[in-house]
Amino acid sequence: MSALLTQPFVQVDAESLPDISESFDVEAVPTFIVLQGHTLLGRISGADASALTDTITKHIRAPSSVTPQSHTEKAPAAPTVVDQGPESDEELNKRLHALMQKDKVMLFMKGNPEQPRCGFSRRIVALLQDQGVQFSTFDILEDESVRSGLKVVNNWPTFPQLIVNGEFVGGLDIVQEMVENGEFKEVLG
Prior knowledge:
7 helices, Glutaredoxin, globular, four-stranded mixed β-sheet, Glutaredoxin domain-containing protein, metal ion binding, 2 domains
């Protein structure tokens, strides 16, 4: 039990930081997410102290008993990096519009269809698949410039964002509504 006291813990207010809540699919509070680096080790929804203790205890590592077998004095050479400077607004806009026109239907989402990283992304992928729509995706968590740029270009603050024929259609709620009232098939042509 004393090993638990040495583990780092972070408390996040789900309503104050909705992006974090979305990325971890938080649907109830409290929710405990157990991570090691970027790897999800466990999830506990609700105030279940014994489940939380069991999950953390399961993943606590004992101090390493590995003995180094070799030693080197020389540090590895630093990689050669060519800094081309920050991307200009014009270059970013060109790149964003090229991405938006990459395929007839483009979905800018958190994660990918096989591993969505938020509930909204998971739901829009399922919706598009249920409608039989062929689509390409872009993981906005992999490129902060694209993530922040699309919010401005499309005047839409959240993700996922669906683009059809290079034009912004909307997020999950808009697309759901369009499917329900038949407009979505018209947009697809």
